[in-house]
Amino acid sequence: MxxxxxxxxxxRAPRVLALHFPALPLQRALAARGASALPAALVHEGKVVLxxxxxxxxxxxxxxxxxxxxxxxxxxLLLPGDEAADRAALIGLAESMLAxxxxxxxxxxxxxxxxxxxxxxxxxxxxxxxxxxxALAERARRLAARMGFRCRAAVASGxxxxxxxxxAGREELAVxxxxxxxxxxxxxxxxxxxxPAEVESRLLALGVRDAGGxxxxxxxxxxxxxxxxxxxxxxxxxxxxxxxxxxxxxRGLPEERVELDGPVDRAEPLLFVLRPLAERxxxxxxxxxxxxxxxxxxxxxxxxxxxxxxxxxxxxxASAARWLLVxxxxxxxxxxxxxxxxxxxxAVEVATVGAEQLALDDRPEVQAALETVLARLASRxxxxxxxxxxxxxxxxxxxxxxxxxxxxxxxxxVPRTGGGSHGDDGPRPTRLLSPPRRLVAxxxxxxxxxxxxxxxxxAVLALEGPERLCGEWWSDPFRRDYYRARLEGLGDCWLFxxxxxxxxxxxxxx
Amino acid sequence: xxxxxxxxxxxCRSSFSFLRGASQPEELVERAHALGLSALALTDRFGLYGxxxxxxxxxxxxxxxxxxxxxxxxxxxxxxxxxxxxxxxxVDRDGYANLCxxxxxAHGGPPAPGGAPRRxxxxxxxxxxxxxxxxxxxxxxPGADGAAAERLRDAFGRRLALAVSRHHVxxxxxxxxxxxxxxxxxxxxxxxVNDVHTHDRRRQxxxxxLTCIRLGVPVAKAGRRLFPNAERTxxxxxxxxxxxxxxxEGLEAAVEIAERCRFRLDDVKGEHPLPxxxxxxxxxxSGATWPPLPSPPHAVGRESASSLSLSPExxxxxxxxxxxxxxxxxxxxxxxAQRGRVGEGADPCxxxxxxxxxxxxxxxxxxxxxxxxxxxxxxxxxxxxxARELDLVGELGYASYFxxxxxxxxxxxxxxxxxxxxxxxxxxxxxxxxxVTSIDPVxxxxxxxxxxxxxxxxxxxxxxxxxxxxxxxxxxxxxQRYGRDHAGMVCEVIGYRARSALRDVGKALGLSPGQVDRxxxxxxxxxxxxxxxxEVLAAAGLDPRGAPAVRQTxxxxxxxxxxxxxxxxxxxxxxxxxxxxxxxxxxxxxAMEGRTVVQWDKDDVAELGLLKVDLLGLGMLTxxxxxxxxxxxxxxRPSRETPVPHPEDLAHIPAEVPAVxxxxxxxxxxxxxxxxxRAQMSMLPRLKPARFYDLVISVAIIRPGPIQGGMIHPFLxxxxxxxxxxxxxxxxxxxxxxxxxxxxxxxxxMRLAVVAAGFTPGEADELRRTMTHKRSHExxxxxxxxxxxxxxxxxxxxxxxxxIYRQLLGFxxxxxxxxxxxxxxLLVYASAWLKCHHPAAFTCALLDSQPMGFYAPHTLVEDARxxxxxxxxxxxxxxxxxxxxxGPSEGVLAGEGEEPALRLGLSLVRGLPRAVGEAVVEARRAxxxxxxxxxxxxxxxxxxxxxxxxEAGALRGLAGGRREALWQALAVDGAAGGLLDGRAPPEExxxxxxxxxxxxxxxxxARLGLSERxxxxxxxxxxxxxxxxxxxxxxxxxxxxxAVEVAGLVIVRQRPMTAxxxxxxxxxxxxxxxxLVVMPDVYERFRAxxxxxxxxxxxxxxxxxxxxxxxxxxxxxxxALAPAVPPQARxxx
Lengths: 510, 1133
What we know:
The complex is a heterodimer. Helix content of chain A is 32%, strand content 31%. Chain A has helices at residues 2-9, 24-33, 53-57, 66-72, 83-97, 119-122, 129-146, 159-168, 181-185, 197-205, 211-216, 223-226, 229-237, 267-287, 320-332, 364-381, and strands spanning 15-20, 40-44, 47-51, 77-80, 104-107, 111-115, 152-157, 173-175, 255-264, 290-301, 306-317, 340-352, 387-391, 401-405, 431-444, 447-453, 456-471, 478-487, 491-498, 503-508. In chain A, the strands form five sheets. Chain A has a six-stranded antiparallel β-barrel. In chain A, strands 5-6-1-7-8 form a five-stranded mixed β-sheet. In chain A, a hairpin with a 4-residue loop joins β10 and β11 (306-317). In chain A, α15 runs parallel beside α16 (364-381). Chain A is elongated. Chain A starts with a helix and ends with a strand. Chain B is α/β, with parallel strands linked by helices. In chain B, α1 links the parallel β1 (8-9) and β2 (39-45). The longest helix of chain B has 23 residues, at 351-373. The radius of gyration of chain B is 34 Å and the shape is globular. Classes of the chains: A alpha+beta, B alpha/beta.
């Protein structure tokens, strides 16, 4: 009989715990910097879109420009907006909340909805239903706090109701018993119902200022005024919200962690544990056609603390065996301050890797060896010691290249800036001397006949030029007249006379 | 001894290549002269923008200036899509005309038939166009493409040379050899050019910065987009000879080319306009048969007149006979070239004859006009003045210019467009009798030399104001009448100022946005970089010693300041020329559709003696026109007795009505032209204007010049009898008597120099202009010495001489000419009379002419309500698109003699398109609307527009209340043929909460920007009264020194530069306006409140000066009040 009655009444609204993270983008950005005590503002397209209490107290106004905000608040921390990071943070929180609830729905941008039906299972013995839900909410808030986020919580029947109550922010934690939703929502402003802006403004113009007012409007009159949204909004205002959660399915960059049974202070056992981790991460990457170009290994230390190793890889890949070669190198060189109690391996940087077609004369083992060498070099001497030269559009000859990350792709050349470039290079030597060597000029009748370099005289057999280069007056100005000279005993050389009239040897045309 | 080497630079870009050249034209010319160049060609990219300045500089140093431009020619060489550079030099006048036509074409392309040319973002020029207009142009081709050179040779024949440059860059020797080989093969001469971008190597950093600004990259990332060295600079003959020791014939070729280019810009001078002065349907000599000008508003004599219609003295008229040599007017008949458009058909050989005919016609029109202005006979002094002016006009050849202006004014009046000449033209009796101006300069004793001076040798400048909403009709008439080839607007060259230079240079040097902003804010809008002292920098946290980029930014910004940045349209300057204008100056489409501008600004135009007329827009003329139209239609009962209750034009407004002056003395002048600002309103009770000339003074005295010159207080003291009127030199009495010994007008400054220091009128005008434009410090010093010496000779003590000089210096830059002030004073009086006698019509006209004036519509409506005008809200049952007048019954137009009420128009509903409003009005013609649904159905309104009308309160009459109306509007399916066809479905009552009065007002402000129901502050009055807060009316009765609190809506915030940091705030409540004075320290403490809060409560002390009451503020706080969308204050404008 009871079952029949339930069916007649339609679906029953689920109990939902809603966590609202106010100003989540700012919380996320501050958490990433560990600087929550500073006045901070989040900036999007040059305008302040969020500001914490300290910043607002100092006079930072939402919508003001960066310059205005900086003028208003000395030491203001300006953080760039990053919607993707915000979403990732909420997803990360959602995944962490999976420890507390069987399903979690991220309601972007600032709310998580947890299935609270299992609250009694996690509750202390003897707790009633409301107590169990409160306990669940408190655990969720603590977990969020551990991850660096503050939130308000509300438990109610129905995802929309719980979400509205959490967003209303009257209490940090509210539990509304089934049947009390309408009364709880009634005094809340319309904004908490998150109606389309046009509908909300129209309702305000009609004098409807809160959810209670909306609930009182005749439902039959709403559909042709506001479309389907009207009756739905009125039902929500009355606390009728049977819609189910949409559970989150984890995606994104994989990471794997393991807690050790006991503290470990040697590399070999760690490598033993690390292998399956690496294989799982590698397998998940490979399934998405990705390869890691950078790994992060976090070692949880006993009793607290963590050692993190960033492991750059010479070439993106999904081979656990190759990763382990490098990881072995790094772990072997590591002096740990304390035994390790847990490990977390994450692919923190990935790239798409496709299948490769080998040519007849390709030698994959050579490529593999090169990768190993590069990885070992990077690990041993530091990432910054390994670089490739990239051409730079600049007139100063020794400034025409810069160090770039070594991609492993031989022959990759950065294209020149298109359009507006004045002239091509003149003759450029194959070798440049750094620094240029000073020369003594010898000549007669205003003509250069020989140069003296480190005590030895070299006759000038031919001379072309000058090519006059000057500029960079904003930092280190230079003015040089370059000549290509054939010098006895030295071959084709590149000379220049600087602004003081001093002659220098700058390179050789080998 | 060998002959000295000669060299001419034939390829040279100036700052007018816009971010492509780092030297001003004057700098290039002066440097070329100093280096000993035989001549210089200025060849800016696609333009002659800088050529007049270069011409002036070249004339003063005696350097021949070749006129040219560099273009990029499409389709010239084989590389598809790449335009070839080509330098075009004007050989003769025809070549110059072709060059101008080519540049015109490059910027606009061929116009659509009957339409205006479209603006091109990047100019371009196809080779066939160039070939077609090659006559008289010498081309320089800096390329080694033999095929292209061959095509150019076919087009230009012997007027072609190849150009080579040597800049010490890689690969250029091979390129030089290739070009010379092409030259030999085709037998085309090869000339040396240096492709100059700077006049001095030291400008290379600025050149780099300009490149970076243009490309939007910082210097550190510009790389090879910058020049590799500084060799593209002006070089003297000796340096070029050394550089080209292997090719001296290239230098000689350049000189020979320059010698062939004989055209000089002076050849353009004297090409005066010839307007199409046919007299439709009548021979000009037949007297009064030309289209009669409507009577001008009124003319004012030296003495206060009993009516503003002039009563000339009874003196016999004598004819203004032509000078010997002129044809008698009766023989005039327009030549075929004068009919319709002028231009290609006009024979240049006839110019002299045309000038004679134009002069004769002008004399005829002046005779007719004089009879019209002085029906009882032209006074002798007027005759003398007219004769003198006509002689000068004839001597200087300006007759056709006057006729052009007359023609334009005639057109405007024929269309019922109110217009009035202003500025120095009002000094001319000829302009007065032609109906161009409304002030009788003879009666006013105005100085003609302020308008035209033979000594000055510069053309006169006639400014005419038109109704601002209809000015475009006049502009398009000029284009249509004279043709786009003959008429164009003068451009305005927008140059870098200190602040914009700092911003652009700072960005190019890689300063952060915050640094750039702080740096830029160190200088005021009109300040120079000298304001940025090391102390100022340090205070802003920008230490130039620690940051080279800051130091470099300052130095380079200083060089960049005054460089041209872009072109804009001059506010109203029009050029009309006899020869096609596009053969005198390149014309390009302006950013505004339908407008075309020449590449020269007003100074350039003046330098070449080209005549321009300024056609300006004036909002008050629009409002006056509307107001007169309302009065003519409704003929309502006036608020005050008046002998002519319903004037149909300005000329019939009764003069010198005491009630008008009483109103002005009370500073009851909201909406009145020129005297409605807070500064004016605080001056009026002290000045107590009682006659027309007092209004002339009122218009002129509240200007930065008289304020900075310290003239106001002496004048007021003397006027109040508190200070003796004295003259440092007895003959100055005649000059300064009417302003009680204090110079207030530019004419007085000029006369003062004449009388007290022996200047000629022309010299006096030069003094004014030198002071005004600060053109030359050296010249100013010379004039000052001359002035002081002249005064000393006449027994004026050195101290008094210095005092006079200081006064002149103070107001010369910002002072008004008396003639201009008098022209404006006519409109002051007219608008004051209308406000005084017909406040409903006057407010209605002001509301419909927005945006204009000083105050927002809500303040105008509040003012009308305080003057007893019933104001009725926007209502679809009664409102037109515009505001209107109703009689005692709602919805019934005010009838003759009825007390009018002001009905707000649908145009006030924010965001409502005119078409929707007009659809409502049209649908209403068939009968009243019974319901919201019926309105929707008959007017075809969508639900969105219905809702907008409902939210604005315009449907209340159909639905019982604003919310009910919105509820009904949202239910209506307004689509024609829709399911319900505008009918609401049956439904239960919504039970909406009725709106409170405060909510109604708030909604009115949100949707209309005003409310006719109540002032928002009135809803707080009870609470404010309990707290002891005074109303604006009560404040007038509070003794000076008393501590008070006042509250209201902020309607004005101003911080004038002349007020030493004081901020003036005006608060409006339901009783009137309270004036606050905020000291700098209080401003800083309450900055956010002063700048941002719409409603404010202020505490302070009352300061009284006669009837002027201010509150000197000690503290401010925001006043929480209903309107969610408050109206805009007049903020710091």
